[in-house]
Structure formats: C-alpha cells, structure tokens
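Exam revision sheet. Question 4 asks you to relate a sequence to its structure. Input first:
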Amino acid sequence: MKRDLQALTGQRFDLVVIGGGINGAATARDAALGGLKVALIEARDFSSGTSSRSSKLIHGGLRYLEQFDFKLVREARQERRRLLALAPHLARPLPFLLPIYRGGSFSPAKIRVGLNIYDLFGNLGAEDRHRMLTAEQAFELMPTLRRDGLRAAALYHDSGTDDARLTIETVIDAADHGAVVANYAEVRAIASSDDRVTAVEVEDTLSGMRFEITGRFFVNAAGPWVDRVRALVKRFDGSRTVRLTKGTHFVVPPVTGNLALLAAVPGEDRIFVMWPWHGGAMLGTTDTDFEGDPASVAPDQADIDYLLGAANSVFAEPLGAADVRCPWAGLRALVLDGSSKNPSAVTREYRLHQDPWAPNMITICGGKLTTARALGEAVARQVAARLGASLDGSSRRAPFPGGHMGPFDAFLRHSVDGAQREFHVRADVAERIVRTYGSRWRAVLEPILTRPELAEPIPGTNAAAATTGEGPLLAAEAAFAASEEMAIKPDDFLLRRSGLNWSGSLLDGASGAVEDILESHGQSSGADRADAGSVPAAT
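Answer key, structure tokens:
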C-alpha cells in the first residue's frame, strides 16, 4: 500500500470516499472488489478516530435485545461468524461471564431467554452456545467475583478484535484491489455544478500542498466530522445528522483471568464490559453526550470514577486509581433521531443520509464496528446502482489480507515455530507478530535475513514487554509499517499498526526510535514527517 498523491489527481473516480475509519474503509473495499474506480482519503491517519477507540469487540450486542432491535443483533451475529472465517487472526472467539446478582436488573429467566435468541441468531457450534451456571460454578471460573448476593451466572461467546488493525487491513485490501488511498489528506472545499458534487479540494497536511480529486459519486464517512464535511457543500442548511456520545475505556490488572465479563451497572439501565487485553483487562464504557471539537475528546476523572465504581460492584477486592493505565476515549456518531432519550438507548444501526442539494453524495450516520463490512457492501451496491454499474465481486467471501489460513490455532502453532526456526525470533515476539499480521507475518520478518539489525528490539519497548507479556517490538515491524502500511508518524505505528493499540501509549520512550525507522523506511520525504506526533504519555 503506497501513498501516491499524484494518482489521486490524474483520473476521475467512480467513487470518492471521505473518511478512513472502518465505515469508509469497508465502503472503499467493497466498491474496489466490485470493480469500481475508488479513491479513499483520510484527514489524519486511518482509524485514528473512533475506529481505534472502541470496545474492540465483534459482538451481537446482547443488550440490544432489550430494545427489541432484533435486526441489528441478527446482522451482528452473522457478521461475527463471517469475520471469524475471513479474518480469524482479528476476530477471535471470547467467552463472557455474565453474573446475576440479587436485586440487579438481570434475572436468570430473562438472561436464559435472551441468550437462547442470541445463539439462534448465530453461534459457531456446540462449544459456542451459552450455558447457565450456578453461583459456585461462576466462582470457580472467576474467583475474583463478589460472592455476596450472587444468584447465578451465564457463560456465552462473542469475539475480541484489534479495531485499528481490522480497519488498516480493510484499507490495505481496498488498495490491493485498485483503490487509491491516502492518509493525512484533508478535504478543505467541495466543488459542485448543477447541484451535483464534482470534486473535493484536498490538502496534504504533511506538506501543505493542495490538489483536487474529481469523481462521479461521493461518500461522506467522516464519522464525528460528517456534518463538517456536509457544511462544505454549497446550499448547506446548517442541519445535523449525528449525535456524538463519548465512550471511555482503560486497562486494569487482569482480574477477569482468561474470561471476559459483562455485568449490569448498579441502579442504571446500562452494562459494562471487561476482557483480557495485553496483560491486563480492558474496562469500558461510558456513554455521554459530547459537544465540541471531536479531535479534543479525552477521558476525564468522572469517566474513570464511574467505570471503577461499576467494576467494584462485582469484584471482591476494589480497584483504585493506581490500577488505571492507558485510558482513552472515542466518539460514537449515532443517528440523530430528534429524541432526547438516554444515549445508551439510541440505535446503533446506520442510516444513509441524502441531502437534496448533493444528490450524488451519501453521508453515513451511525453503524458499528461489527457490522461495518455489511454496511460497506450495502453502500457500494447503492452507489453502483446510482451509477448504472454492476459489481463484479463483494467482500462476503473475500479473506482479509492476513486472513489466508486454515484453523487459526493450528496456523498459530505452525507459524510461531517457523518464525523461531527461520528468523530466530523469541517465542513471545513471534506469537504477537503472528496474531497481529496473520498470514502476512512472514513478509514482516523476511527483511531480517538481509538486514539483521531489523531483528533488534526498538529502544524503549522492553519495559512495556514486561507488562504485556508479549515481548518487545522489533525494528522490522516499524519498517514494515512504514514501507507497506503507510505509517508516517510514530503514533501510526505504535497505536494503530503494532497490534498493541492504546497499550502503545505506554511506549512513550520508543517514539524517537520509531520516528527514525519510519524516516529511513518510509515512502515519503522527510518533510512529510514534519510535526510528527508523539505518543500520549501513560497515565
């Protein structure tokens, strides 16, 4: 995947996608797979917004059953099954324990009915079906639970993912099928003629250069920024299409063991989740309305206190401020439906908005990480129909770039052994690399054979390796991100391509070394990396 801005200016595209989060990436991928001439541009880095700040789950949304949103749950469960086949390294099955406490909002009968429906909508076989547990069975599985008041529990399955890597591989596959893609390419103006969008004026934010991209159809997939993009179109009426809500997460010690946890927030019609993540347990999420610049979103102390309080309602030993590390916050761009109901009750389904003054531009509102592939397929089909074109293929059966493998566990064992034998890589490092890149792992390590220095750990990553238990990052990984995955700034690699995601915020000392590697292996000039970002400091 190469950053070639000239390729964006020398042709007229069938489709120009604005926004390189998961929705824009999925739309570009399906359109490119179908044979359309596609451009995908992102103002910052791919997945740098909401798509790297989610709960990092491929899930059906068990709580949406309470809202009778059966269509969304069914689609999400079907997409989970599909992603496990097409990207098994990025959508791994994850068992969830759901404790049921006396006086809480859950009851054994209610949970049993809900999970029967959940299984019906899409499980992976007998081992993936739910089981009801006694309190004692729940304690055996998760000894850290609070015993007082526990009536029963349920064990069911969803999947965990690295949302940033899933987005990056979606972009890569779009590029592999002919899409011209570029990060750090921000839309500054939109040109129209006869009430149709004809072109977007784009600024390369790395160099300040401006250029124009022309197209027949446009998709606005800018997430929290969609209304700012709409405002660039002539005759914009000042309306809004999305409601922004903030979700905060952070990492605590591994109190859930090898299981994930879903539990009710006391006194509220909400849930929280925890699941094993890079040597700890990820805890989330909040859901509060947000006003202001989407780029400024950040966790605050109230968010952290709220989540600690929720978690401490089910654990025998309370978590405290000293247990919190690498907090992050993201924004959901939910469908604006005119109601003032609680943000958690707003649908997570997507809506395709059409402004009458821009009939050849679709704005994507809402959506979920889990169902992004289906969304992209639906948008690509609609665009093709509007253009009078037919799509030659779709993403339904197309593996992701790293998804070309058989059963994942066997592939993992074989590949880790091969990495140790052929490239003399430590077992923990090899396993992390295989889990991150899937079937592309060999391309990451092969340069070591001719440049042995690439096998060296990146300075500043050894200490974090002791925390995550996954081994230090290698110079070869940053070099691969620069040459093959369009990483330009340290954050691009540490937070979005290394597989560590926000645990990369612990590697503040690695930023300078990573910048040097990106400089020497990247596709752009040194000027492109002016004002390179630094990794957020750990909290």
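Marking note for examiners. The radius of gyration is 23 Å.
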